[in-house]
Specification:
This protein is mainly α. The protein has one domain. It is 43% helix and 9% strand. Strands 1-2 form a two-stranded antiparallel ribbon. Strand 1 and strand 2 form a beta hairpin. The relative contact order is 0.26.
Length: 65
């Protein structure tokens, strides 16, 4: 498992508070793209929650579990 720079999305939001609207849009777009990629592979994520979203370098989100 690779190291993620900012940890879980849950912990980051808990420590820093709400995101700006622009940041939230970028993150939601990344999540949608990630979920669409899973769907194209014939897979699904049944436990999507902030604890299972990792914030990596350059604010790239990674879906985990």
């Amino acid at each position: 498992m690779q190291h993620v720079q900012h940890g879980e999305l849950f912990n980051y939001v808990f420590a820093t508070g709400a995101f700006s609207e622009v940041s939230a849009r970028v993150m939601v777009r990344q999540l949608v793209d990630g979920l669409l990629h899973l769907r194209e592979q014939g897979k699904s994520h049944l436990d999507l929650k902030p604890e299972n979203i990792l914030v990596a370098k350059d604010w790239i989100l990674q879906i985990s579990d």
